[in-house]
């Protein structure tokens, strides 16, 4: 490889689809310079990957992109539910579920909500936001090879328009380069799982007559179950533009060339139930669903994220959401290491936290695919459902997952990643509960507090903890925000209402919790402590102990930091 380096960056992102662009956005928000390279000429042109769950929208909210995304998605804002029918013209069909958020109950749990925004609409928003934060994003640029050493990664790039080669040196590399990831293959990281589930051809077409057949049934997706011509229909604008997923059987010798315009038109008409309906084919693209998870998420200074790390059934829209959440988890940890307030050992927690989530989520996605009898997918005998109701199961995965291991103190390492009951009670390793507060008179969610720093939440009367935390953070050069919640004049945050419920966990007076920049609880209070001592829990660096009520940090030798932290502090 050419030893002359043309560019030096802290982080190199390979792959500029949803996950890569999200990683760029999150790193940009944290002030980390980076370069993103994508071999294609621009963002996606095909409407796909449209379901953005609540947790993903919470992350985009904190990153400042939520409103722009919702504006881009406004055309489908009133589409909800999954319909199944043998014909759109002769059968009202059966709603597998009619509302994403029946009764509006989701507002109890989150300041955000689901968003139906297709990839071709979402990617330009992420691109604009990421570039606005200084992201160096280069399309038509392919990474040809890379090598890594103890200090970083050296990658060789090719501009596909000009043929020019450049060499980039980065401290870390994020591989968001898709399910066939050349980076993963280069690292020799194997995948586990059943493999391919089914193949489809995604057909985009125009038809005004179809809107009449659909009527007021504003669905996200309609499974058409005509045995002679089945498939899945998705609206693009509810008026003229549509997408149809037709089963494809390459194992039987079918090729993409077999899907001529004539065949596609005939298949769509028969599936809908109108043999005279106007249909204009505008595009087609093959795709497959699979269940695979990488055995490892990292190799020294290279990290997998998104489809390079995991593939899963599209049912439930878990795939891209899990990938975006990978990127968020990794971004703040890279920022902590690069900014000097954590050692490289923190990066080991990325795999420890995100790999089990992908395994559990992938299994849930396949179970839901079996429930929904997705066209082309024959579930294994005895395959079970997701549990807890169709939408309850999705919400349980989106908001209820936990990190039993990783950068967490107090979590049960033997506990399930996705519990059967979504308690939302703030256990260590779980997502922090949402509660509306007033901050300088303006309404804010507890989730809005978690982005750039660790956060200590305490009662308004807990001034000793507030001062102690601030002092320790200054001594350790750690990024920390400390907030007192209450009606006391010294409190930074005031509860907007006195109501408690699933979104505002009631705790005894004086409870204190630590939360990481991801909005996941990294430690919290315990019911009893011996010798009237309390523990102020932080995952990275380690927790300290001192007598209750004392605001004096412990002596330097009271509790030793692990070697990776001491090494970072010595630099």
From TrEMBL:
Its cofactor is FAD. Keywords: FAD, Flavoprotein, Membrane, Transmembrane, Transmembrane helix. Residues 553-565 have a biased composition (Low complexity). The chain crosses the membrane at residues 12-32. Residues 362-389, 549-571 are annotated as: Disordered. One of its GO terms (molecular function) is oxidoreductase activity, acting on paired donors, with incorporation or reduction of molecular oxygen, NAD(P)H as one donor, and incorporation of one atom of oxygen. It comes from Streptomyces avermitilis. This is FAD-binding domain-containing protein. Residues 9-363 form the FAD-binding domain.
